[in-house]
């Protein structure tokens, strides 16, 4: 039978080296390279798999959410590290790229491969 506690998600990137630098260096996550793929430890039992794909097309949906206590603080810290936050009209984000409205505060950004990620305030 399957064991859901060991399940993991994954998505493609166009350049493993750039992805490793971003996820390890910029985001500060534990990244290991094995079998031509990246494994990112999100928690003790949760991992993310990033695999190279020559014809990679960036995810147009939010592929990964990072829960944080304070979205504004997370945005400020990541901005200092060079992360650029998306500006949307729907839903309308503020000057920092934070959506403050119905639901939790959230801000979207992209990894070097163009995949959409987000920091979302814990509620």
TrEMBL record:
InterPro entries: Glyas_Bleomycin-R_OHBP_Dase, Glyas_Fos-R_dOase_dom, VOC_core. The keyword Lipid biosynthesis does not apply. It comes from the Bacteria. One of its GO terms (molecular function) is lyase activity. Residues 5-122 form the VOC domain. Keywords: Dioxygenase, Lyase, Oxidoreductase. PROSITE patterns: VOC. The keyword tRNA-binding does not apply. Transmembrane segments: none annotated. This is Catechol 2,3-dioxygenase-like lactoylglutathione lyase family enzyme. The lineage of its organism: Bacteria, Bacillati, Actinomycetota, Actinomycetes, Pseudonocardiales.
């Amino acid at each position: 039978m399957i064991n859901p506690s060991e399940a993991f998600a994954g998505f493609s990137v166009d350049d493993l080296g750039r992805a490793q630098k971003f996820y390890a260096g910029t985001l500060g996550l534990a990244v290991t390279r094995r079998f031509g793929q990246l494994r990112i430890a999100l928690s003790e039992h949760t991992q993310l798999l990033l695999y190279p794909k020559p014809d990679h097309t960036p995810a147009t949906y939010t592929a990964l959410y990072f829960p944080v206590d304070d979205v504004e603080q997370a945005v400020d810290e990541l901005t200092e590290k060079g992360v650029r936050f998306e500006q949307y009209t729907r839903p309308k984000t503020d000057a920092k790229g934070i959506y403050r409205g119905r639901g939790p505060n959230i801000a979207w950004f992209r990894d070097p491969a163009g995949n959409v990620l987000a920091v979302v305030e814990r509620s």
